[in-house]
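Deliverable D5.2: sample structural annotation.
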Amino acid sequence: MEEEEPVAAREPCPYRIVDDCGGAFAMGAIGGGLFHAFKGYRNSPPYGKIAGTMQAVRMNAPRVGGSFAIWGLCYSSFDCSLVAVRGKDDSWNSITAGFLTGGALAIRSGPAVALQSATFGGLILGLIEGVQVLASKYAHDSVSPIVETPELAPTPAGLGQLQNVPANPWAQEDVTSFDNKYGNNVGSDGQNPNNGGLPSPSF
C-alpha cells in the first residue's frame, strides 16, 4: 500500500503550530500596517500626514497581527488534531481545519453567524488547497522526462574521415611512379616498354 504524500512541505506537528502562528502574525502585521498607513495618510490633515500615518500604523498593525496570529493558532491546532485522529496529512485536514476555525472564532455571535463564518473559512481553505494542487500538477507536467541515451565508445577525433586516406599521399604517388617507370609495368615478354625494351631490373 502506497503512503500518501503530504500536499505541501510543512513543519511536523506540533512545531507547525508555532510556525503558522508566527507566520500569520507577521503577515497580518505587515499587511495591516501597510493598509492602515495608507488609510492614516489619506485621513490626516495636510500639515500632519507623516504623524497621522505613524500613529495609524502604531495603533492598528499589532491588532491586525494579533487577530491573524489567533486565527493561525486555531487553524494549526485543529490541523494537527485531525492529523493525529485520521493518521494522514492531506487537503481534507486543511479544509476541515479552516471550517472549524471559522466557526470557533465566531461562536460568541450565535450559531447562525458561526455556521456562516465556518462555511466561509472552509471555502477559503478549499480554494487555497485547490490552487496548490493545480500548481503542483502543472509544474509536474511541465517538466519533461530525461531520456538517457546509451554511451558510445570513445573514438579518436577524425578517425572516420581518415580511414580511407593513406598515411602519406606523396609517398604513395612516388611509389606508383617508380613502379610504372621501372618495376611493375612489364609486358608478357618480360620486357619493360618504358625502359627501352630491356628486361626489368631485379632488386
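Annotation notes: DSSP finds six helices and no strands in the chain. Residues 1-7 have pLDDT under 50 and may be disordered.
The annotation will be released with the project's public dataset once the embargo ends.
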